[in-house]
Write a structure and sequence with these properties.
This protein has 481 residues and is an alpha+beta fold. The protein is built from eleven helices and 30 strands.
């Protein structure tokens, strides 16, 4: 048995400075590269301090990323609970405390932002004591240090506490054992194939080894450390990026190293994550007022978990039901668009740069593709989806505007094609631009082949006059309500 470095997970509320703390410790600029300045994945980083290695796991603070925080807690030896001195205990602080206690994780309280003029560390300690977290200088057994991650105040003191606690835990590993560890994240890289961010928990992992999870396997082609440098061997507590999986492993899976002949045996011994991930799920109550079909595509499996968690909250608050018919990582594909068309589903694309061809096909198929980079943008977008869904459930037909002719303050003469249902004389219509409602009107004149008619059905061209004050342009859509 050999001594191994501690794995430290950082917990706390959004914007309380978890990533900035890592940033200061590593002298890197992590937060500047994150959309919205928040951590939306589990990231692991290794540092050296006083000739000792320490591995840090940064866990997202937003309420949607509860499952990702659980991953951090599962693999950590020590937790750091970051609480802002100017804001005190918040909802995700409470959730983090519950998670730490549930996993029996030894932890240190880091009261951050003590450089702020309204900082009040003693109030933070009082609030924590009411939650059963009593720090040492209040007579408890939880180490506590006042820090400023931004200004670098007392960071060495915090690192010293980590090494002291790690020494008490007497962390060891078996050097000659086959390697095993934990998949923190997995993604598909268009140039390098399937990549998995992992933490080694025991034994040794080497380039050329066969790596196996319950859902995937592969031969390790290359490995990189947390700074992107190539390595050939990874020991326990090491965060490592592994390339070489034949198929996508799932975040949260245990991996093991074995021979090619042991692949099926190891897979059968491990918990099956793939089955539970791939099946369609319903979020919300069966008797909800409105059902919305969704396809979720994202950069990471952990991101999908976060989105689903956020949808659970929205469904509860707004009495909705979301039926998620597909969820997967990687760019939106033509198959996704076909499925969305067949099912009448909206597509959520998270932290992806979809190609121009996909955007063109979305327009051709009259689909709704929602592209976001920050989780809390989703709430406002869901509001829009609700309106669109309600409108679509009531609508009798749609017309795409192909030409505009004369216009006055209250009348607009246009030409178009009925793309669904029918449009009739005296129909009331909503005017949409890029699926956003920009106005309302009434059809006061309708012609087909320059002959007045009472209605025009799907697939046919027509000319019409709409009584509205809203400007109507080519590409806009009229929805009959």
């Amino acid at each position: 048995m050999k001594k191994r470095p501690p794995i430290v997970a950082i917990f706390g509320h959004i914007d309380h400075g978890k990533t900035t703390l890592l940033d200061t410790i590593q002298k890197t600029k992590i937060t500047e590269t994150e959309a919205g300045g928040i951590t939306q994945k589990v990231s692991a980083y290794e540092i050296e301090y006083k000739n000792e290695r320490i591995t840090f796991i940064d866990t997202p603070g937003h309420e949607a990323f509860e499952k990702l925080r659980e991953k951090g807690a599962k693999v950590a030896d020590i937790g750091i609970l970051v609480v802002a001195a100017d804001e005190g205990v918040k909802q995700q602080t409470i959730e983090s405390i519950e998670l730490i206690k549930h996993n029996n994780l030894p932890f240190i309280v880091a009261i951050n932002k003590i450089d702020k003029p309204n900082a009040n560390p003693e109030k933070v300690k009082k609030d924590l004591s009411e939650l059963g977290v009593i720090v040492e200088d209040w007579g408890g057994d939880v180490p506590c240090v006042n820090i400023s991650a931004l200004k670098g105040i007392n960071i060495d003191e915090l690192l010293d506490l980590i090494l002291i606690l790690a020494g008490l835990l007497d962390l060891k590993y078996e050097e000659n054992k086959n390697g095993e560890g934990y998949i923190l994240e997995a993604t598909k890289d268009p140039k390098r194939g399937i990549l998995a961010g992992c933490i080694v928990l025991n034994g040794t992992v080497k380039v050329g080894d066969y790596i196996v999870t319950s859902s995937a396997y592969g031969k390790i082609r290359f490995m990189e450390d947390s700074f992107g440098r190539p390595i050939t061997k990874a020991l326990p507590s090491t965060p490592v990026l592994i390339g070489g999986f034949e198929s996508l492993p799932f975040a949260g899976e245990i991996f093991k190293i074995g021979t090619k002949n042991e692949i099926e045996k190891i897979k059968s011994e491990l918990e099956d994550y793939e089955l539970s991930f791939k099946k369609p799920i319903i979020v919300g109550k069966e008797e909800a007022e409105l059902e919305i079909f969704l396809i979720i595509k994202a950069d990471l499996i952990g991101s999908i978990e976060g989105i689903i968690k956020f949808l659970e909250k929205i469904a509860s608050e707004k009495n909705l039901k979301f039926k998620i018919i597909k969820k997967d990582i990687g760019l939106v594909t033509i198959d996704d668009l076909k499925l969305a068309k067949e099912a009448g589903a909206f597509i959520i694309s998270f932290n992806l740069k979809n190609p121009k061809s996909i955007h063109e096909e979305v327009k051709n198929l009259n689909l709704n593709l929602i592209e976001i980079n920050v989780i809390y943008e989703l709430e406002e977008i869901i509001e829009e989806l609700i309106e669109i869904q309600k409108q679509q459930s009531k609508e009798k037909g749609r017309l795409e505007v192909l030409a505009t002719f004369s216009k006055t303050a209250n009348k607009k003469t246009i030409g178009g094609k009925v793309i669904s249902g029918k449009i009739s004389l005296n129909d009331k219509v909503l005017i949409l631009k890029d699926e956003a409602i920009i106005g309302r009107g009434k059809v006061i004149s309708l012609e087909s082949n320059k002959i007045p008619v009472s209605e025009v059905t799907e697939g046919n061209l027509c000319g019409l006059i709409v009584n509205t004050k809203t400007d109507i342009n080519v590409g806009d859509v009229l929805v009959v309500i």
